[in-house]
């Protein structure tokens, strides 16, 4: 089961408590249950749900996974032609198990597929993978335990529900019987208003959002002392974002974790108020409850402790595989160990993540992972944020370049080089630095290394080469 049996339970026990508040509209547990029940009768065996954040989204999503039904959630920002292509593929590939209007609002068999997940994309067709009801139920149990989600929590996930981070947060709250909030679109002022007026205790978001909320929240004197949990995913928190979040939300435990849509949760850590973090560190905590982690080479053999290789996972939360888009590398298995190609290493039981193999920079025959460079740069005084990438070089194959957003005033390449001396090995240090007016990010708030290279090559006014 994912969450529908639990939804029925909360509607029976606490019918008039708030279940969801989306874009200013509120549904209590009874209203959400009844609206989803009414929707089920007209819901097909496979639904392609493509709409902006709203309470209607929550209702339709609940109905779309009732019984043996399956749901694919599409990003409404994708081009129309891409949406239509995905709908055709979903309807052609999905298991069309018979459903009946009389099924009601109940969870289907635990082993059955309920979600057709889609990797992010704007022009290329996203890969599609499937998840069973049992895999999400086990994920809920693990995340509720790890993050300490309580029924008296009020969760705000201000990003699009089409993104897996926010869709999971919605479903997790429905499973736990905990109040869920989101906005129609992300807006710093609206998030601050929700925190102030809606008793928000828990934030689920990506680091770039947290950075904006924290810095502008301190400037605008927005009280975030009532927030007790902040959960970040998408990339590891840099030192400046962590510092800003701690000052703005002094009572929050700040969690970051590593996972993938196909694998679910892998590892994570929670930093209590005042707890020190390693400057420029790549550690991302210990395995989640119910998860085993190993580092294996490309043949599936274990590597020595401290050596890097494929981060491989064994757990009941792993997805079923792909409907389309699998090139044999996207998700590999070695027996019952699965990997999506992320590289890392284990040290004293903690997982260190270096990044995707596809992001790796090969410079003069040596491997450099931009994620490690970015974390090191973010720990340098005067750096607000950083992004690194590999630029084509005739002599070395690639060379490491980095763009930085200064925290205040300006910063020189000499200062950056000096700041990295004790943090980063010489061969990993950038050969060229660029001053950025803003971080190159996707429409979902994730930093884009390819976009940095495009800006540099196009001499975009948002990027300027730094001299000594």
Please tag this protein with its features.
single chain; 468 residues; alpha/beta; Rossmann fold; GMP Synthetase, Chain A, domain 3; 9-stranded mixed β-sheet; 5-stranded mixed β-sheet; 26 strands; 29% helix
Please provide a written account of the structure.
This protein is an alpha/beta fold. 29% of the residues lie in helices and 28% in strands. β9, α8 and β10 (229-232) form a beta-alpha-beta unit. α1 crosses α2 (29-40) and α2 (29-40) crosses α3 (55-64). The longest helix is centred in the first third of the chain and has 15 residues, at 133-147. The radius of gyration is 22 Å and the shape is globular. The mean pLDDT is 90.
CATH C-level name of the largest domain: Alpha Beta
What sort of overall outline do the alpha carbons produce when their principal axes are compared?
globular
Question: Would you identify the regions where 5 or more consecutive residues have pLDDT less than 50?
Answer: none
* Biggest sheet character: 9 strands, mixed
Total domains: 2
End-to-end distance, in Å? 59 Å
The number of helical elements comes to 12
Helical residue percent band: 25-40%
């Amino acid at each position: 089961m994912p969450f529908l049996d639990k939804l029925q339970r909360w509607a029976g026990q606490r019918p008039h408590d708030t279940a969801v508040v989306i874009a200013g509209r509120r549904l209590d547990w009874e209203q959400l249950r009844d609206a989803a029940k009414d929707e089920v009768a007209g819901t097909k065996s496979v639904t392609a749900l493509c709409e902006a954040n709203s309470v209607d989204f929550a209702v339709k999503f609940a109905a779309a996974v009732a019984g043996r039904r399956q749901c694919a959630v599409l990003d409404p920002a994708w081009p129309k032609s891409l949406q239509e292509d995905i709908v055709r593929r979903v309807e052609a590939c999905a298991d069309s198990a018979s459903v009946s209007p009389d099924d009601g609002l109940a969870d289907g068999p635990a082993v059955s597929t309920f979600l057709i997940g889609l990797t992010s994309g704007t022009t290329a067709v996203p890969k599609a993978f499937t998840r069973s009801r049992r895999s999400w139920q086990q994920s809920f149990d693990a995340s509720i335990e790890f993050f300490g989600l309580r029924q008296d929590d009020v969760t705000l996930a201000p990003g699009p529900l089409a993104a897996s981070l926010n869709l999971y947060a919605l479903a997790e709250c429905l499973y736990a019987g905990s109040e869920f909030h989101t906005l129609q679109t992300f807006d710093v002022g609206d998030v601050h208003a929700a925190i102030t007026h809606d008793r928000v205790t828990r934030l689920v978001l990506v680091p770039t959002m947290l950075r904006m909320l924290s810095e502008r929240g301190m400037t605008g004197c927005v009280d975030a002392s009532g927030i007790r949990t902040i959960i970040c995913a998408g990339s590891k928190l840099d030192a400046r974002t962590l510092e800003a979040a701690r000052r703005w939300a002094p009572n929050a435990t700040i969690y970051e974790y590593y996972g993938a849509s196909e694998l679910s949760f892998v590892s994570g850590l929670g930093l209590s108020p005042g707890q020190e973090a390693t400057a420029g560190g790549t550690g991302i905590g210990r395995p989640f409850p119910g998860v085993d982690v190993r580092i294996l080479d490309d043949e599936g053999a274990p590597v020595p402790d401290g050596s890097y290789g494929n981060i491989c996972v064994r757990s009941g939360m792993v997805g079923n595989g792909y409907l389309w888009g699998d090139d044999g590398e996207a998700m590999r298995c070695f027996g019952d160990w699965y990997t999506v190609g992320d590289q890392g290493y284990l040290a004293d039981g903690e997982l260190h993540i270096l990044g995707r193999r596809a992001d790796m920079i090969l410079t003069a025959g040596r491997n450099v992972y931009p994620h490690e460079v970015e974390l090191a740069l973010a720990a340098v005084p005067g750096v607000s944020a950083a992004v690194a990438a590999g630029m084509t070089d005739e002599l070395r194959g690639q060379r490491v370049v980095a763009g930085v957003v200064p925290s205040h005033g300006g910063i020189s390449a000499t200062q950056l080089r000096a700041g990295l001396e004790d943090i980063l090995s010489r061969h990993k240090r950038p050969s060229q630095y660029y001053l950025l007016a803003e971080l190159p990010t996707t429409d979902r708030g994730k930093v884009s290394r390819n976009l940095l290279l495009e800006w540099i090559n196009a001499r975009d006014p948002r990027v300027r080469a730094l001299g000594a």
